[in-house]
Amino acid sequence: MSAENIIELEQIKDFVQPGDRVWVGGWTLVRKPMAMLYELIKARLTDLHVVNQPGGPDTDLLIGAGCVSKSEANYIGHEVFGHPYNFRRRLEEKDGSSDFLHDDWTVGTGTMRILAGALGIPFIPSKFLRGSDLMNPDNDGFKEIRATDPKVPKKKFVTMRDPFWEGEECILVPALRPDICLLHVQEAFEDGTCRISGGVFLDYYAAMASKTVIISTEKIVRGEQPKKAYDENVIPGEIVDYIVEVPFGGHPTAVHACYDNDPLWFQEYIEASKDTESMDQWLEEWVFGHDSFTNYLEKIGSKQLDRLVADPTYGYSPNIIRRLDKIKEVA
Amino acid sequence: MKTEYSNLEMMVIAASRLLQNDQKVLVGTGIPLVAGTLAKKTHAKKMKMLMEAVAYDCDPESLPFCVADPRAVYKTKWLPTPVEVMGQYLQSGKIDVGFLGGAQVDKFGNLNSTCIGNYNNPVKRFEGSGGASDIALMAKSTIIIMSHQKRRFVDSVDFITSPGWYCRQMDGRSQAMRNDMGLSGGPYAVVSTMGVMKFDDTSKLMYVDTYYEELGVELETIQKETGFEIDVSRAQPIHPPTPKELEILRTKVDPEGIYMKY
User: Fold this and answer.
1) Residue A148: which domain range?
2) Fewer CB within 10 Å of terminal CB in chain B, N or C?
């Protein structure tokens, strides 16, 4: 990547098209590229096909904002904070009006699929899925579109006996081939090289497997050469297409050594997401109502943000009130 | 230190007692994390606790919100990716115990964390498998932990997210016993808010092994809160929590009450 590919947050929408398969990096509540997602929602993008494994508030929010027509994931949720009501509601719609398709996977198979994408191979054998109802062809969430949608594998999986060794039953799962990979990292250099601390999860493999890779970073390190601490660099700049500097760009998720999860955000969001009307109000207030991300952070307020700042020894903040049922009593 | 204790505390303590020093334990998010951490801080200090997203051999000082939390990373000896933890350690059979929760469990230990009702038109939809399906399939043994209610302990789960002893066959439709399918592993125990259930060696049906007598749990109550006929003939009262177990759980493992809701 060259220095002219350092972009502004507002430009993100120019690189993502309806129909794109989007990998959102991080892991459920950790290091999600939230600032970039707010920008895509503001651009009223629709028909996204989310392929990240697993999803957290990122995916539930994109679904709630009407940006997603298809998702394949092993999990969509907010872990200990509460339930993903936008995701739930779309699948529980009884009148058949839902045009949202969801295909269920597992962490094991999701991992194998993005690994296959990174390896450049079309599919990969796996031992996972066996014994579960995920193998029932009736439960293939994409069964109606596999024959016609070129962005969806023609089959969910194929079973095969190992032809080389003992003949054990294997499951062949298709590679994931995201069009867009959106990641949030702690540091990036001007040439796109990324540093991540506190666990890389599947971010490197997703970057390798994706056609276009856009990284938001807490900080762009200017001048200093990445080789100075090469062992901390986990994604080479060569496979990165664009970087954008967004301090607090992962809020409300946790970014190791930078800041913690924001329980107050989760409390308000999860409550609002319980029905479409309050969800729309939430979107107006927190996404459409801001002309910049700086604006959004100002609305959160420095008092709340300061409390999230990570302790350098721990990598998280020992100061946050973590119980949603007690937040109001203490805060 | 008050000596009274709750069913939730007894559940976590009973589950932690099932873990041992020489094991590699892959823990799921939520209560399994609490019980695993308790074991690490009491009788199983040498046990290796793994988390699917990021952690090999962790011993958190503060309970993580999820398996990727910086709290899971602090002082952890190695930070692998899911390619190593799930693709390699788990898939190649190197995990001794998988430790899982769920929304429903049935008499064969099949677990559901996907939906209630028909999958294609669910009455209630849950978050999905995460790594649970893989862990229940590939760990050498599985421990399940969940609240004991009739709507959770069912004759047959609405959706087999994580296979127990009576699994879906390769056609995805018919069912067969796990051993007949050539699958290894399987559920070892279900730890609930009323007792510890195990599975009969021959029939693979769930039975009550121990129950929380000191908390007033009666075998009739367990049967009443179980959606299938459960064998209680082998049931013994469990050893109540030791003061040390309670103290460490309350002061070191979950002092904030994030999971224990003090």
Assistant:
1) 1-247
2) N
Interface test with A, best of B104, B133, B160 (most A CBs within 10 A): B133
pLDDT digits (tens, 9 = 90+) for A138-175: 999 999 999 999 999 999 999 999 999 999 999 999 99
**CA-only gyration radius of chain B, Å:** 18
Task: Based on the residue annotation, tell me whether B218 is a catalytic residue of this protein.
Answer: no
Question: Could you report the per-residue pLDDT of A213-229, keeping only the tens digit for each?
Answer: 999 999 999 986 656 66
Q: Are A204 and A234 spatial neighbours (Cβ–Cβ below 8 Å)?
A: yes
Minimal Cα distance from A100: which residue of B?
Answer: B120
List, in order, residues 6 or more apart from A319 with CB less than 8 Å away.
A307, A311
Residue ranges with strand state E in B83-140: 97-100, 104-106, 111-112, 115-116, 124-125
Other CB atoms closer than 10 Å to residue A138's CB: what's the count? 11
pLDDT the model gives residue A330: 47
| CATH code of the domain containing B53 | 3.40.1080.10
Q: Is residue B258 part of a domain?
A: no
Phi, psi of B186 (to 5 degrees): 125, 160
For B141, the enclosing helix (H) or strand (E) is: strand B141-145
The predicted structure's pLDDT at residue A228: 60
pTM of the entire predicted model: 0.96
Residue A198 · residue A256 · CB < 8 Å: yes
Question: Does the ipTM exceed 0.85?
Answer: yes
Q: Which of residues 164-183 of A touch B (CB under 8 A)?
A: 168-169
The mean of the pLDDT values for chain A is: 94
In a domain, B118, yes or no: yes
SS3 of residue A112 by DSSP:
helix
Domain boundaries, position B184: 7-253
- Report the CATH number that the domain containing residue A135 is assigned in CATH: 3.40.1080.10
Determine the pLDDT at residue B256. Answer: 87
- Domain-embedded: residue A282: no
Least confident among A101-115, A197-211, A217-231: A217-231
Looking only at Cα atoms, what is the longest distance across chain A?
Answer: 63
Q: How many residues appear in chain B? A: 262
Nearest-CA residue of chain B relative to A140? Answer: B120
Catalytic-role residue among B9, B52, B225, B245: B52
Residue A272, domain member (yes or no): no
Sequence-ordered strand ranges (E) for chain A: 21-24, 48-50, 68-73, 101-104, 123-126, 158-161, 169-174, 180-189, 194-195, 212-221, 233-235, 242-245
* Pairwise CA distance, residues B199 & A48, whole Å: 45
Q: What is the DSSP letter of A320?
A: S
- Within a domain: A275: no
